[in-house]
Amino acid sequence: MSAIKLSRRGFLKATGLIGGGLLIGYVATPDGNSPAVIPGDGAMAPNAFIQLTQDNQIIFYSPRDEMGQGISMGLATLVAEELDVPVDKIQVEFASVHDDYRHPEYWVQGTGGSSSMRVHYLPLRQVAADTRALLLTAAAMDLGVAAESLSTEDGYILSNGTGHRYSDFIATAQTLELPSETPLKAKADFKYIGKDMTRIDALAKSTGTAIFGMDIAVPDMYYAMVSRSPVAGGTVNNLDDSAARAMSGVTDIVRIDSGVAVVATSFWKAKKAVAALNIIWDQPDLANFSNGDIRADYQSALESDRGTTETEGSITEGLSKASMQVRRDYWTPYLAHTPMEPVNAVVKISDGKAELWAGTQSPGVARGLVARHSGLSVDNITVNSLFSGGGFGRRAQLSHIAEATQVAVATNKTIKLVWTRENDLQNGWFRQASIMQLHAGIDAEGKVTAWDATRVGGDLAPDTLAGVLPGELPRTPKLLNDLMLSATENLYDGWLIDSGGVEGLVSDYDFPNKQLRHISVNHGLPLAAWRSVGHSFTAFAKETLMDELAEMAGLNSFEFRRRNLQNNPRLLGVLEAVEQGLKQWDIPAGHHIGISTHGSFQSFVAQAAEVSIQGSKIRVHRVLCAIDCGAVINPDIVRAQIEGGIMYGLTAALYGDIEIENGAVKQSNFHDYKILRINEAPAVDVLIVETEQAPSGVGEPGLPPIAPAVANAVYQATGQRLYSMPLTLA
After folding, report:
1. pLDDT beyond 50 at 311
2. What percent helix, strand, coil does the chain show, rounded to 5?
3. C-alpha angle 43/46/52, rounded to 5°?
């Protein structure tokens, strides 16, 4: 991640895991009243994000976590641009927990929502520009020249043809007040922003020297695994652990909130022993439900008069103006996140202090959970954030942190707790299932006159709050937390609409009369934001219906959308970019094109999928994607994230389906929860339609349009409309 090359052992020594102190004297402080960074000897830290060492090293403390999305590179580029330092000369460190690193739009220190570049684009440039201005002022004083006569280049201040290191002026700079509102560079002067550059973490990840949670090992560490109820919410009725206790290497077996934990001297010994536990579980109501029951409940709710409604215009008036109408129902199933690296955590508690090592999307909440379950003050807890092997929303759920802490407390041992792939698929959190009903009318000119949408399914807000509250308010009694959660559930059941279940369902197009109804039906399966959240399923319903309406109107898919996008020029722009791009394609016989458009996370995307049907199998050969994400920091990262989002979305479109049988998840690993294989991956062309808007999300917006684009291509190939995911031919 940084210019410093460290082996795994070198990293452990440098960061104090094998004695010694922090590499650069960086310490976490508990709140915004104390500095976020305490500089090393001879160094200065003019703000929470930048430290300049006496040997002219620039250290950037990234406030957002790196899960493979490239945000460390992106944010470092902003700092490099305004500091006038090459990006590869900046050492990037993960910020620890401090109020200065809280997300400016959320109330926690967390990473998500494809928001990091958008919220930090100007603030990080500003702190870097102010730091550069401070150094110039100090240099002018030390050199006895006018500040206007000085310039900077690659971390040096130039005066009369002589280069001076930034660090030469630390002593004087520390006596000065940090400037504010220093003018930022004009786009025409950018050296790094907008340029293709190799990611600064690429070498470490390619050579295996990057440090993920799974890599951490500390002295006197023991491994823990947990046996959890196969049905969410189940509790231990009876435990026979005699066989497990007799196994080699097992040191402890303890009950914790989520089940029974086995502690052993190695991961493999813990894994074998946890399988030997004989547990009788008390099962909750979910044990009575299977997929068919859940879907039947949704259908019954859809046909009821329940729900919360928001209306703009008049559906009745809009339908009266329609020359044609259509009503369709769409089904999307539960999905798992399946990050490459399953969740894990190391917790060490000694001498009234605790230390945590983990890759997480919410280090502040993680610290609070350690405090809650250890009884320690947050002031005495250090969080070491690490690379995460994928997030997709899964690493915002932190029950494994609570589990590791509970086991560490119960055993008085340093604990590394690991979830396996099977644990993650069967006991994790899931994207909510949904039934969506769309009723639309169009007039003789191909304009949508009415758009009436209903979504039935679970709510994200209560489960999200359940994960955040205990960590953000670690001293709040459990009873009070439970009361707040109960109140939240009631609010979203008939009073408020959870945006995570409906976003994108009634947006994008010029719908003069639109109505949104949401009906909450929750069966107790833990729900969590999944890559692109509600957009991951609402786009499927919206865009397949738009294609069907285009056919009814006698218009091609591009023209119909164009007529209904006159008030959304950015989405229209990417649609037309794809239309022009397709003119360069040579479409083989038997291959067919489907298109879709969708806006999410303040970015706008259009896609075309080239599909053929091979027996009963849907084969996606190529995808053309145009994205308008505003100002582009690194085009290579944009392309990579779009490609990744398309592959992740194709997995959901073609295979994704978590099945519930008697309350338990049937799937257990990738043999029965299939993901897209490399030989199935389509070629992807990405067209970046850059505009003068502020940068917006790229990690998630590439996903929502792919399923409807494929479904629309399947219709062109077969004449069969698909209304359920995963996409399956009859």
Report:
1. yes
2. 35, 25, 40
3. 35
Give the CATH number of domain 8-207.
3.30.365.10
Q: What is the mean pLDDT of residues 455-483?
A: 95
Instruction: List the structure tokens of 425.
Output: 């698929």
- Best CATH choice for the domain 292-335+431-460+498-718 from the list 2.40.10.340, 2.60.40.10, 3.30.365.10, 3.10.310.40: 3.30.365.10
Please indicate, yes or no, whether the overall pTM of this predicted structure exceeds 0.90.
yes
Q: Which helix (H) or strand (E) holds 126?
A: helix 116-143
Question: Distance (Å, rounded) from C-alpha 213 to C-alpha 195?
Answer: 31
Distance CA 409, CA 503 (A): 42
Q: How far apart are CA 60 and CA 384, in angstroms?
A: 16
Place of tokens 């909130």: 257
Distance CA(107)–CA(571), nearest Å, equals: 30
Query: Does the domain formed by 213-284+343-418 have CATH 3.30.365.10?
Result: yes
pLDDT tens digits for 272-293? Answer: 999 999 999 999 988 899 999 9
Q: What does pLDDT average to over the chain?
A: 94
Give the span between the Cα atoms of 475 and 463, in whole angstroms.
Answer: 20
Q: How many angstroms separate the CA atoms of 518 and 456, rounded?
A: 6
**Residue 702's beta-bridge partner residues?**
none
- Confidence band, pLDDT 50/70/90 cuts, at residue 34: confident
C-beta separation of 529 from 430 below 8 A = no
Query: What is the C-alpha to C-alpha distance for residues 243 and 227, in angstroms, rounded to an integer?
Result: 14
For residue range 92-108, what is the model confidence (pLDDT) as tens digits? 999 999 999 999 999 89
144 contacts 164 by C-beta, under 8 angstroms: no
Secondary structure of residue 691 in the 3-state scheme: coil
| Residue 684 DSSP one-character state | E
Cα distances (angstroms) measured from residue 162 to each of 147, 213, 726: 15, 46, 65
Per DSSP, 408 falls in state H
DSSP conformation letters of 430-471: EEPPEEEEEEEEE-TTS-EEEEEEEEEE--SHHHHHHHHHHH
Domain ranges in the chain are: 8-207, 213-284+343-418, 292-335+431-460+498-718
Report which of 453, 441, 445 is spatially closest to residue 318, judged by C-alpha positions.
Answer: 441
